[in-house]
Amino acid sequence: MSHAFAEFILDSRWNTIPAPTQHKALDCLLDVAGCTVAGSRTPAAEQARSAAAALFGPGELTLFGTTATGSALGACLTNGFAANAFDLDDGYRPLKGHPSALVFPVVLAAAEESGCTGSEFLSAYVTGVEVAIRAGHALHDYYDFYHGTGSWAPVGAAAAATALLGGDTAAVARAAALAEFYAPLTPETRAVQTPSMVKDGIGWAAVTAFASARMALDGITAPPCLLEKPETAESFDHEYGRRYRIEDLYFKQHPSCRWTHPAIDAALDAKARTSHRPEDIASITIETFHEATTLTSTAPATLEQAQFSLPWLVAIALVRDHIDIADTLPRHLGDPRDPTINVLASTVKIVRDETLDAAFPQTALARATLEFTDGTTSQSETRAATGDPDHPLTTEQLHTKFDRLAQPVLDQQGTAALARCVAQAADLPDITALLHAATPSGTTS
Questions:
Q1: Secondary structure (DSSP) of 73-100
Q2: What is the pLDDT of residues 423-434, one digit of tens each?
Q3: Please, are residues 369 and 347 in contact by the beta-carbon 8 Å criterion?
Q4: If you average pLDDT over residues 155-183, what whole number do you get?
């Protein structure tokens, strides 16, 4: 059995990680921190806080974006729900999942509990993501159905947390094995068909990951995880410390399922090619890949339904030129003051294109055609979503996104402080300053 992934985690040091990878990792950390702060105010995160207190009792660990605290398992549950609540967190397209939203809360809890340095926290975050992604590839090859992030990311998160908590190679390997054994095999297709708060299973899987770390440190064993098996190790062992797949993560501009983003951006492109107003649109045709064609709801009633409603998201983007997180909250859905959105959503036709379908999941593409009441049309080019590694967000766009997410919770000064702590994390003696910056000065909501 190979323990190369465990040795990689234990031997990694932030100052030996290549500079481009460090830069991407800090961008990812800023992004997931902003998503978690904003997500702390959603119904899902608020209800997770209540459940965490009942399930796991009190504690002193930080619940991002609130003045509340919780136990380690409670923090993982709450911060896990918050990180993914607005569906704005980074993603890894080959696995159709979201590694940072799960690895971040688990490593954060371990870092706060252990009192590790900022550079140790960063190294654990990066290596946790690296191992999580490879575990995902192994699991997707092993099982014959699409399962969400909660099924594979706990492997990397548990292994990295165990290292921060003082585990040796054997303990780190045990933690990965326990996490793989206990992680939920989230039936993601059902989660997409009927959107709900659990989404990719990230919240509960974060609990599984931290619990696996603790059990591993206590010597509890499990069958070896797939990464330890020779046939899988042969695929990945040579990559550790040489290829960093965190560089392949994408960032999101819109608070919705990534499968909707190419269509949204294509619709905005088609709009930009004409002087017609949204009220002049008679119909909208979206050509895209099969998975996106399943997102057909036109009248979402919850935050989660809105995030998976391609027609409604396209309509709101065309009317307002962007989609804000507030637009997806229940109190803003079906707003009678803006009937154009509902009317436009009802005109959207989603068509599967064989060429675009064949390109997925390596590339997610769409085309949009707007037909106007005067009989003219405007069509976009075939395009991918902004934020992909080959079409990245700029540093300015990432910081604008972060400010937009964090300021309603932390205010302008607090948001700037959190951004500084992330940028300077490698120099922090511990992560206390980062945790303090993520805590609003007012009362939790």
A1: HHHHHHHHHHHHTTS-S-BBGGGTB-HH
A2: 999 999 999 999
A3: no
A4: 98
Mapping DSSP to helix (H, G, I), strand (E, B) and coil, where does residue 51 land?
helix
CATH architecture of 4-253+396-437: Orthogonal Bundle (1.10)
**pTM summary value:** 0.95
pLDDT at 444: 36
What is the distance between the terminal CA atoms of the chain, rounded to a whole angstrom?
A: 48
Does residue 29 surpass a pLDDT of 90? yes
Could you tell me which of 368, 379, 376 has the C-alpha nearest to residue 276?
A: 376
Q: Which two tokens stand for residue 367?
A: 């085309």
For the chain, helix, strand, coil in percent to 5 are 60, 10, 30
Go through the chain and tell me how many residues it has: 445
d(CA 66, CA 411): 13
pLDDT of residue 445: 36
CATH number for 258-384: choose from 3.30.70.580, 3.30.1330.120, 3.90.550.10, 3.40.50.720. 3.30.1330.120
> DSSP string spanning 117-186?
-HHHHHHHHHHHHHHHHHHHHHHHHHSSS-B-GGGTHHHHHHHHHHHHTT--HHHHHHHHHHHHHHS---
Give me 194's structure tokens: 């009927």
In angstroms, what CA-CA distances link 173 with 111, 124, 204, 244, 433? 19, 15, 21, 20, 31
Tell me the CA distances in angstroms from 75 to 25, 107, 183, 298, 434, one per residue in order.
22, 11, 18, 35, 15
Structure tokens at 234: 């042969």
pLDDT of 336 over the 80 cut: no
pLDDT value at residue 298: 83
Average pLDDT over residues 199-219: 97
